[in-house]
């Protein structure tokens, strides 16, 4: 009769010891410290007010890889920041929609879009729009495609205030022929 209570006590102590060791392991404690909850603007929030959560993976003192997730645990974006505060985006980013499909991708330089950004539709399979940025200049060159055919519809400059500027070109449907220059 005394063997069973002793065995149970031994198992309880062993379980407690394993839990204690696991919680003090560097990987476990680091994962807890590197998961933060944020709102749409990236500001740190309590979990109950957050829109997303981030898993931070420091690469070196000037590079932190971040995976940000929707609260349904689907990936929102993968990208790099210049430091552990994850304020300045710097490097390649891929964004996903709530259904898990690629929404857009491109590069940031010191917090600003730089180079080609591609926007997708149809479950991330077709290109809806391309935006060409030249950091540190403000604004971008915009190329819009027909969502049903993928053909180029129009292109031109967008200024820093998100308004069309300069010459815009429109194309005939299903053709590379210029329809109109504005």
Short précis:
The chain is of the alpha+beta class and 182 residues long. It has 2 helices and 12 strands. β3 and β4 form a beta hairpin.
Order of helices and strands: HHEEEEEEEEEEEE
Helix content: 10-25%
Count of runs of 4 or more consecutive helical residues: 2
Q: Residue-averaged pLDDT, rounded?
A: 84
In one word, what is the shape?
elongated
What portion of residues belong to β-strands?
over 45%
Going by helix content, strand content and strand pairing, the class is alpha+beta
Strand order of the largest sheet: 1-2-3-4-5-6-7-8-9-10-11-12
Radius of gyration: 25 Å
Low-pLDDT ranges: 17-33
Gap from first CA to last CA: 94 Å
Find the count of extended strands (DSSP E, 2+ residues). 12
Main sheet makeup: 12 strands, antiparallel
């Amino acid at each position: 009769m005394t063997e069973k209570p002793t065995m149970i006590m031994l198992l309880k102590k062993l379980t407690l010891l394993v839990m204690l060791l696991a919680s003090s392991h560097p990987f476990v404690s680091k994962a807890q410290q590197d998961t933060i909850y944020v709102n749409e603007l990236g500001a740190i929030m309590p979990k109950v007010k957050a829109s997303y959560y981030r898993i931070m993976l420091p690469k070196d003192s000037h590079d932190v890889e971040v995976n940000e997730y929707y609260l349904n645990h689907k990936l929102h974006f993968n990208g790099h920041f210049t430091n552990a505060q994850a304020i300045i985006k710097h490097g390649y980013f891929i964004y996903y929609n709530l259904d898990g499909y690629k929404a857009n991708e491109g590069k940031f330089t010191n917090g600003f879009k730089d180079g080609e950004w591609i926007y997708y539709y149809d479950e991330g399979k077709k290109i809806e729009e391309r935006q060409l940025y030249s950091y540190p200049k403000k604004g971008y060159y915009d190329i819009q495609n027909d969502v049903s055919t993928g053909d180029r519809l129009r292109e031109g400059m967008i200024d820093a205030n998100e308004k069309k500027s300069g010459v815009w070109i429109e194309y005939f449907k299903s053709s590379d022929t210029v329809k109109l220059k504005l």
